[in-house]
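Here comes a specimen:
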Amino acid sequence: MIADTTTYHVPVLLEESIEGLDIQPDGTYCDLTFGGGGHSRRILQELGDKGRLYSFDQDRDTLKNAPDDSRFNYVESNFRFLRGALRLRGVGQVDGILADLGVSSHHFDAAERGFSFRGDGPLDMRMNQRGGRTAADVVNQYDADTLARVLREYGELDTTWKIASCIVRAREQSPITTTSQLVEAVKPCTPKRDESKFLTKLFQALRIEVNGEMEALKMALEQSLKVLRPGGRLVVISYHSLEDRLVKNFMRSGNFEGKVQQDFFGRSEVPFEVVSRKAIVPTNEEIARNPRSRSAKLRVAVKL
């Protein structure tokens, strides 16, 4: 039985991402973030009998959303292992790669996963629940300096030393093991006017650290250069400035600093042609239907 993917997650910028992929009916494609399967199902609609789709997800919960389709291949893996996972399945190159870097509505709404401050649950935040550190490990074991760095780099928060100090003081009284305990721990440094925005950034920073999201994104982008055929398309939907900056720089230059290399004759050496100089963003209508799409930015590039 296939799960109701509309309740699991509403796909963001769906038609825009499909247009960006410029799908060929007999092509081979990758969806690096399967989730509720909305983007994958739409890709399958464009594929012919010889087309193939490989959809990645490290969260075993998403397997129940897999369509019953011979062209579809579910890859239970973090997308940081993109190239190796494809090679294990006899695939050397593909015609397009799509990555929607957002956290699914299912994860935010499932209090027991600990992704949101809006419900009380274990401070977990792992996408892959089969192992690895949890958000509770981070807030209880990291020293104040390291905590402050994580909050500054991944949450882009101000006064991160003050926030880290609040967490350290609270955990000295008793371990912080639930989302509500974390919210209570940082209450002395939570701004009253922007409480929701502050907590969103705090939880985002911890989630990125727990799941190694920035490292995984870098690895997947670098592997896309080897996996995409010439003329293949890279389509990425990001949700915060850290991700978008990495994607923008990489598509522009092939590196994460955005520095375009030049050959002996001064000609620019770039691996991609950027399809749209400006990021594509949701329409007002989409934001009204799905408020969680408001911060999404889609970028498209063609492998040269």
